[in-house]
Amino acid sequence: MRDDSGVPLTELAYALLEERIVRLELTPGETVTEQQLVHQVGIGRTPVREALQRLAREGLVRILPRKGILVSPIDPEAQLRLLEVRREVERLVARLAARNAAPEERARFADLAAAFRHAGDTGDDVRFMRTDRAFNDLCLDAARNEFATAALATLQPLARRFWFHHYRQAADLPRAARLHAAVAAAIAEADPDSAADALDRLLDDIARFTRAAGSTGVA
To answer: Best label site of 41, 81, 119, 151, fewest CB within 10 Å?
Structure first.
């Protein structure tokens, strides 16, 4: 089934629940029922259940039989291990996207670079997070590699939630936005080497942020 815009209901349920988790409207360690989530997103039980299965594969929730849905706790040490994988796979994806993107995708990357800069200039954390999700999705599409897509799809939502949870204590939003914009701009310009270099600078900054967030003791 699809909504009036043609988006499959499972995809819509996933997008709504993922954003609620990433923005901490569903808090880490909280347990909720499937029925509560159905009520919150206004979508039927079957699409919500299918969305929860995907969220569980991504590590954002744990499905506890006869107990409910546990929103997974946030673990800085796990984030550092996640970054080890992200660095290798995202460097490959950045190169592939710079090499393989279609002209309309390159134009979209240029638009996303501008959106990142605007979010940084205005301090708009929600716009930054939504731009980041759109950028990640476009990278995976433009890379034209289903295996890289499968590897990163389970990592990026956890990374976005960690950032949103801790950025006020440890992150520099304007700098993060500029670093993301540099990757998007290099892909738009069809420059694989610059895209990979910009991606390394971005992940260096994310690693610094992750270590700083872990040292604050804020879970």
So the answer is: 81
Rounded Cα distance, 181 and 118, in Å: 10
Fill in the amino acid letter for 65: P
What digits encode the pLDDT tens for the residues 141-194? 999 999 998 888 888 888 889 988 887 776 788 999 999 999 999 999 999 999
Query: Residues near 40 by Cβ (< 8 Å), separated by ≥ 6?
Result: 16, 20
Q: Which domain holds residue 67?
A: 9-71
Confidence band (pLDDT; 50, 70, 90) for 40? very high
82 and 44 within one domain: no
Determine which helix (DSSP H) or strand (DSSP E) holds 37, and give its type and residue range: helix 34-41
**Is the domain of 106 the same as that of 55?**
no
User: Distance between CA atoms of 126 and 119, rounded to whole angstroms?
Assistant: 8
Q: How big is the chain by its Cα radius of gyration, in Å?
A: 17
Q: 55 with 14: CB under 8 angstroms?
A: yes
